[in-house]
Input
Amino acid sequence: NLTSRLSRVLDSIRGQGRLTEEQINAASRELRMALLEADVALPVIKDFIDKVKARALGVEITQSLTPGQEFLRVVQQELTATLGGTAEPLNLRTQPPAIILMAGLQGSGKTTSTGKLALWLKEREKKKVLVVSCDVYRPAAIEQLRIVAGNVGVDWFPSQVGQDPVAIAQDALAQARKQYADVLIVDTAGRTTVDEDMMKEIAALNAALTPIETLFVVDSMTGQDAAKTARAFADVLPLTGVILTKVDGDARGGAALSVRQVTGRPIKFLGVGEKSDRLEVFHPERIANRILGQGDVLSLIEETARKVDQEKAQKLADKLKKNKRFDLEDFREQMLQVQNMGSMQSLIEKLPGAQQIQAQLKNVDTEKQMRRTVAIINSMTRQERHFPDLIKAARKRRIAAGAGVEVQQVNQLLRQFEMTRDMMKKVASGGMAKLMRGLAG
Ligand code: GDP
Ligand code: MG
Output
């Protein structure tokens, strides 16, 4: 994912000042790969990277974050902004019945989404909803909507194969008015590919109904094609929003960025499953994080920046890199830093791969043990801390007495120190994440 890619290229470079052009270019190459993997359309990637580059150039590297983390923060912010910034609600501000027209390719999820939206409007907004199918080519499609409407408990207006779609919609609208429905959702026919007849038909429906919402329904799993389809629909229809479906099957979320960029229209909902209640309001920030593949890494970064004295950690990492001896004072420093971070647990939960780390931590009563460790090291002499091999039986007894513990616990600490020292040797290069993982093990 992008987070690990960026730490590879950037975390070796440290320092104060601004992100350099060289650093930004290196990071942008990784970003490009990550977006390609997320299946974002090519022209969209280029635009997006240009924006990120422009913004990253002015960014100052603070003391607490690495260049990689700073860059990631810029990407996350830009991605969220490009995806619309904040959630945009469905617009129903019109003389009822508010008409919602569903447009999109066959199989994109129009009929399913019509049912989901009807349920959502009924339950969340307490609206009275009527649905109608203008898919006059497939009897099964009309029947499908009838069943869905029955399942979610909203009214369904009958239609038949061969009728004129515009006439059906107008009849349904008259019926909606008559029964004082708040919302009329018009499901339409799609083709398997963009085709002129379909476009003419949907454009005619749109012109006749002048809906308050013309929603483009698009399958997120179609990846690169989603952008092309979006362009075709946006060209003939004044789209007001997008429903991105089958997001449950697509872990990458790249279609969201493509579709938003190409249509310029807000994504309003996500379809996250086949059932009628599997509809979510779209939140740009969540999808941004999904595209970056980083779980809750940004809040982790913030937390780390707040609580860890990065400079000290860096000194330690540098020392290790230079193959200097890792002694008990370094060990104590580590312990103090971890204590300083407070709840280790909440921090670790946010790391990608958290479960493994937690499993490792399970047997250790970290907080208590760390405090004891620090107390024991405090009662050693400087010489003992630098040369732990000096600590034999007599010294152990003295240290134990000084710290108010048993000799056994001094032994335990020394073993723990040795294990840590061995492990630190294996940590090839610094980096806070590695350091922390090291501490946890
Ligand atoms: P339409 O031709 O545009 O009306 O598409 P449908 O609503 O008939 O949906 C086509 C297929 O996609 C059906 O099998 C749906 O169950 C499935 N589908 C629709 N939305 C979602 C979704 O959000 N997640 C999943 N997993 N499947 C969906
Ligand atoms: Mg359908």
